[in-house]
């Protein structure tokens, strides 16, 4: 298949398995890769150690249960999928713990709950605190991610520049409309990334049957608390 061009592969907010069951975002082309000097480009930045205080995500993964409590992205879209809305914080340390941990508020078929996900090596531990009407029951699931490990810090080195666009950014609404930003569009395989042209700060990522993420403050290197990863595996899962 041909490579994506400007304003292609941009995604949006999905809510079902059918091709038209999503709300596409807006996009206006500014320039393709051949019209922008390579020397002026800033490659997207992913810090080796970082704390993301707030990000938004629609997590797409295979449906293992009717309420989409256990959702992990896969490398295909066979079977029914979950489209789980969540937002929260994330800590990443590839130097020491070599792990990724998120704490998010989640919308599910059971109602709203909180979820802590820890990914180290092939192991993913998910601790869900169920809604109040369940008396706040905690439920731990453990899964093997197979060959999928936490992101390598240099994964952005694989990205190819597609072009510059004015893109609507979900969850950053202004008067009911998605905020539009001038961004550089990069991709590698099915993974798409949008970053600010002047700094390389990542704002948005999209990958089919994987998810949509918006990072209002970026994914730059930042201070983090190393004790975040002291409890591996989580006590709730032992």
Description:
It is a single chain. 0% of the residues lie in helices and 48% in strands. It has strands at 12-14, 22-24, 27-32, 49-62, 81-93, 99-108, 111-120, 123-129, 138-144, 160-174, 177-188, 191-195, 202-207, 211-214.
SSE arrangement:
Layout lengths: L11 E3 L7 E3 L2 E6 L16 E14 L18 E13 L5 E10 L2 E10 L2 E7 L8 E7 L15 E15 L2 E12 L2 E5 L6 E6 L3 E4 L24
Antiparallel strand pairs: 1-2, 3-10, 4-5, 4-14, 5-6, 6-7, 7-8, 8-9, 10-11, 11-12, 12-13, 13-14
Mean pLDDT: 90
Q: Order of strands across the biggest sheet?
A: 3-10-11-12-13-14-4-5-6-7-8-9
Order of helices and strands: EEEEEEEEEEEEEE
Class derived from helix and strand content: mainly beta
Low-confidence stretches: none
Largest sheet: 12 strands, antiparallel
Structure annotation, total helices: 0
Helical amount: under 10%
End-to-end distance: 46 Å
Tell me the radius of gyration.
18 Å
Number of strands: 14
Beta-strand content bin: over 45%
Shape: globular
């Amino acid at each position: 298949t041909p490579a994506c061009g400007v304003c292609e592969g941009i995604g949006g907010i999905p809510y079902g398995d059918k091709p038209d069951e999503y709300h596409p975002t807006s996009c206006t082309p500014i320039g393709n890769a051949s019209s922008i000097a390579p020397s002026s480009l800033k490659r997207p930045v992913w810090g080796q150690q970082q704390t993301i205080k707030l990000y938004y995500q629609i997590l797409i993964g295979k449906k293992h249960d009717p309420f989409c409590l256990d959702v992990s992205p896969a490398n295909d879209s066979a079977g029914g999928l979950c489209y789980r809305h969540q937002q929260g914080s994330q800590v990443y340390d590839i130097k020491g713990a070599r792990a990724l941990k998120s704490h998010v508020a989640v919308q599910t078929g059971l109602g709203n709950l909180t979820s802590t996900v820890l990914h180290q090596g092939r192991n993913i531990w998910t601790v869900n605190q169920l809604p109040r009407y369940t008396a706040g029951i905690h439920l731990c699931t453990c899964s093997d991610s197979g060959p999928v490990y936490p992101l390598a810090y240099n994964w952005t080195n694989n990205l190819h520049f597609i072009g510059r666009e004015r893109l609507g950014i979900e969850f950053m609404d202004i008067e009911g409309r998605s905020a539009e930003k001038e961004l550089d569009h990069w991709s590698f395989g099915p993974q798409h990334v949008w970053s600010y042209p002047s700094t390389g700060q990542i704002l948005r990522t999209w990958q089919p049957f994987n998810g949509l993420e918006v990072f209002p403050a970026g994914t730059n290197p930042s201070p983090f608390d190393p004790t975040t990863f002291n409890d591996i595996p989580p006590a709730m899962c032992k």
